[in-house]
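in:
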């Protein structure tokens, strides 16, 4: 099945099983804004818990913060967002659709990569174990031709970005004959910059209203509070401040569901270090964060680092952790060495001294900062993409059967245990309720009595429930239930008294944290 078709099925699955809904759907929706349903919010909360606990509980020198969405407008002037928080946009005159010029060119680069990968895949199939991919890529004429096109486009694109040359970006789009996905035409406007911040007014009267912004990132709330946290927490450098919160960007949205939204949630940690040590800490956090992603068990080959072509105005090093989505490798986390830019700017614009006194060096300085930043929604999509499977099974009558299953890591699953009475009489529902009442303070449990037991299993597979416990007449005799494992579909008879221990061993975050050492 084509990757695009899989992605469409995943989007439909998210709605059908209560993970993600289009916001304001009964009013025909609001573009690039989504709501999380009953299962989606549980999965999202578990993702946040995995991140928060791995940051704050596992690191003695990282603490948390929850800063306000509204901030003094001068903060955004100091941070550079008022003047420099822009995307290069281009419109197609026929479809009237707007696109990011850099994304259109990146997609063209990806097409050259796909052509090379297809040649490699065909050769690998032809030569089998004797295939030498490195030698093939260095000698095959078709691969070399596409690699040359990629290299030339990449060099030209990087220079245009770094020079902020909007005319050259348009020229690249024209030279590469890039068409609008909607109209199929190459009738483009000039490229221009578009500020992504949402503005509003704060105040009771029009004359006295203050122009404020919905924050486009959560990091600045950490920077302006770093000294408050350091002093009240008696923190010593190096130390970090972690935060989870909403941010808002007036994005020109790609057609990739919740991958890029106008209202989204970030998980960010700013790590304050001595000047001169920032690149060493950058490398450490780079490896630490990759290990965090790979601990989920979705395959190391599906992750890679991507070095930035153009550094932000505040950075001296930047890298993305990318995951192989159905629509290609895309960023799930950014790690940046932000230097002392933010703190120095806030010190200058506020007129307040926000330096740290280092007792070991016996001097004060503005710390340097290493940042790790994940979009919760993007992480949610990555986990759903990696967990979605359609499996062909042998039915009892010899016919083929198909099940859709979300193989979510058990600690992240919305529902940990579904308890099902075999029939809705003879005291079985009451016994099932009794089991749930005993376990519901330890795990998120669900009672399910509707439809046949087979249909109920399929429903729980589709929402990623790792365990189902079936209550039958034998349960009333010997206090045992049949427990079914989601991934293997194996069933075993266990004592009700052992249920808690069996489930806890699989759904506890300790198993994930052990991989981070």
């Amino acid at each position: 099945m084509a990757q695009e078709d899989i992605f469409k099925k995943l989007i439909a699955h998210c709605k059908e099983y209560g993970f993600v809904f289009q916001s304001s759907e009964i009013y025909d929706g609001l573009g690039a804004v989504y709501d999380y349903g009953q299962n989606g919010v549980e999965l999202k909360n578990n993702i946040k818990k995995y991140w928060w606990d791995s940051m704050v509980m596992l690191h003695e020198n990282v603490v948390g913060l929850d800063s306000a969405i509204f901030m003094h407008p001068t903060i955004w002037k100091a941070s550079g967002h008022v003047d420099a928080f822009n995307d290069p946009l281009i419109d197609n005159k026929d479809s009237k659709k707007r696109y990011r010029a850099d994304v259109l060119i990146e997609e063209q680069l990806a097409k050259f990569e796909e052509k090379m990968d297809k040649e490699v895949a065909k050769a690998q199939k032809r030569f089998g174990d004797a295939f030498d991919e490195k030698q093939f890529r260095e000698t095959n004429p078709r691969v070399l031709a596409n690699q040359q096109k990629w290299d030339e486009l990449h060099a030209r694109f990087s220079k245009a970005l770094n020079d902020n040359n909007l005319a050259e970006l348009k020229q690249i789009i024209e030279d590469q004959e890039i068409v609008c996905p909607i109209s199929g035409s190459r009738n483009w406007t000039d490229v221009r910059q578009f500020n992504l911040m949402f503005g509003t007014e704060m105040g009771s009267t029009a004359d006295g209203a203050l122009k404020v912004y919905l924050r486009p990132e959560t990091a600045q709330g950490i920077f302006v509070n770093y000294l408050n946290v350091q002093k009240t927490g008696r923190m010593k450098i190096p130390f970090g401040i972690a935060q989870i919160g909403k941010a808002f960007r007036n994005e020109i949205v790609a057609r990739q569901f919740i991958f890029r939204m106008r209202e989204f949630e970030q998980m960010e940690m700013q790590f304050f270090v001595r000047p001169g040590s920032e690149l060493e800490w950058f490398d450490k956090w780079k490896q630490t964060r990759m290990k965090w992603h790979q601990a989920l068990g979705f395959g190391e080959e599906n992750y890679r680092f991507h070095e930035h072509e153009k550094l932000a105005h505040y950075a001296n090093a930047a890298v993305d952790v990318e995951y192989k989505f159905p629509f290609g490798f895309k960023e799930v986390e950014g790690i940046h060495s932000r230097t002392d830019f933010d703190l120095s700017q806030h010190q200058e614009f506020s007129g307040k001294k926000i330096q740290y006194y280092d007792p070991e060096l016996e001097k004060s300085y503005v710390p340097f900062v290493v940042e790790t930043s994940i979009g919760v929604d993007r992480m949610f999509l990555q986990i759903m993409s990696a967990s979605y499977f359609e499996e062909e099974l042998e039915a009892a009558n010899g016919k083929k059967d198909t099940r859709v299953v979300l193989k979510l890591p058990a600690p992240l699953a919305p529902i940990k245990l579904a308890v099902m009475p075999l029939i809705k009489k003879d005291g079985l529902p009451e016994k099932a309720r009794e089991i749930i009442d005993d376990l519901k303070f330890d795990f998120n449990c669900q009672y399910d009595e509707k439809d046949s037991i087979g249909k109920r299993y399929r429903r729980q597979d589709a929402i990623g429930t790792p365990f189902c416990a079936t209550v039958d007449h034998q349960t009333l005799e010997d206090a045992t239930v049949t427990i079914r494992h989601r991934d293997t579909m194996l069933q075993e008879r266990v004592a009700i008294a052992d249920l808690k221990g069996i489930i806890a061993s699989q759904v506890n975050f300790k198993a994930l944290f052990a991989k981070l050492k």
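note: The mean pLDDT is 91.
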